[in-house]
């Protein structure tokens, strides 16, 4: 891959967005690489959690690649938007939980990438924003939809219309990020969280993710019915037997992921 790095540390997959000279801006080639990588990770049962971070000092991702978009026709821009949406939907629905570790700019498509992850941990220096209106465009990788779902309609509209960058503490106050941590501890804290998740029953974690993702788009009675199906499904796993038996025997559970 030219624009991404991927490494595995125990059962955690770490993706680094790696175009630091362009502040990791998302061009079509990067999106296609991310698509292929996510397809591979989805079927890699050895990977139980994923972390996404930005390479270089300054940025998580500073947006879609403006130089590439500049001369696009309307049809090309539509296809580019659809490509990003498809990849970010794949990320959002990846079986494994995904943590975004955000150390610098997460603007435009970068904020949209972070929002497609399950959990966002920001360093104190991170900056967020949807500055697309300053370029004469709207967000196009799901930002107009995921932002209001995370922070509410009114705040989302302010961020989208005004276009200002907000700092990590403000992003935390608005519910855009889960935690704000010191710059030097960002990866350590992201890995510790991933390890904690990985120590639990992996199928149950994946089913929690599916229940939230699918259920949030349903009416509450359908969503709770779906939850009941998923809860029942857990009892077909070895991990449910092990987890409950370990509790009764007052020992730590040893999950097989089955
Ligand atoms: C292409 C980018 C870029 C981007 C930065 N660069 N962001 N290239 N696309 N989104 C490049 C710069 O051109 C520059 O290249 C290098 O990265 C370093 O950036 P500087 O601007 O010199 O750094 P700095 O002065 O520190 O400013 C950082 C910044 C600024 C505030 C993040 O770069 C910036 O405003 N970037 C654009 C942010 C943005 O508008 N994002 C939304 C894009 S639209 P050179 O070659 O000069 O060194 C979007 C739509 C998504 O994301 C939906 C699409 C369907």
TrEMBL record:
Enzyme class: lyase
Gene3D superfamilies to which the protein is assigned, alphabetical: 2-enoyl-CoA Hydratase, Chain A, domain 1, Lyase 2-enoyl-coa Hydratase, Chain A, domain 2
Top-level taxon of origin: Bacteria
CDD domains recorded: crotonase-like
GO molecular-function terms, A-Z: 3-hydroxyacyl-CoA dehydratase activity
Entry keywords, A to Z: Lyase, Plasmid
Keyword Coiled coil: no
InterPro entries: ClpP/crotonase-like_dom_sf, Enoyl-CoA_hyd/isom_CS, Enoyl-CoA_hydra/iso, Enoyl-CoA_hydra_C
E.C. number: 4.2.1.150
Gene Ontology BP annotations: fatty acid beta-oxidation
Pfam families registered for this protein in UniProt: ECH_1
The keyword Lyase is annotated on this UniProt entry: yes
Classification via NCBIfam families: PRK05809.1
Similarity annotation: Belongs to the enoyl-CoA hydratase/isomerase family.
Name of the protein this chain belongs to: Short-chain-enoyl-CoA hydratase
